[in-house]
Design brief:
NADP
């Protein structure tokens, strides 16, 4: 179990550094459309978190899985809110007479 935990932590740290570098290289004008498009990937994270929470091997895995579900859902909802806000900028404003 220790080797699997170390491998998982290594992947997490490596993915965090790579993700940070990739996001830093994106120009601000493209950041919002790209992040709103990544909501499908966040949905996959939700499914993975639900699977992790449902295994019930230990109480710790259930608690960590629940935290993962909550954080992934915050990410998905936030992405949709950002997308909606971005799309509101492109709507034509009604002119009142």
């Amino acid at each position: 179990m220790t080797e699997a935990l170390l491998a998982a932590l290594f992947v997490l740290v490596l993915a965090s550094f790579i993700g940070f570098e990739v996001i830093n290289k994106v120009p601000p004008t493209l950041h919002t459309p790209l992040m709103s498009g990544s909501n499908a990937i966040s949905g996959i994270s939700v499914i993975g978190a639900i699977l992790a929470a449902g295994e019930r091997n230990t109480n710790l895995s259930v608690i960590l899985g629940l935290i993962a579900v909550i954080l992934a859902m915050v990410n998905v909802v936030g992405g949709f809110l950002v997308t909606d806000r971005m799309l509101q900028m492109f709507k034509k404003k009604e002119v009142k007479a």
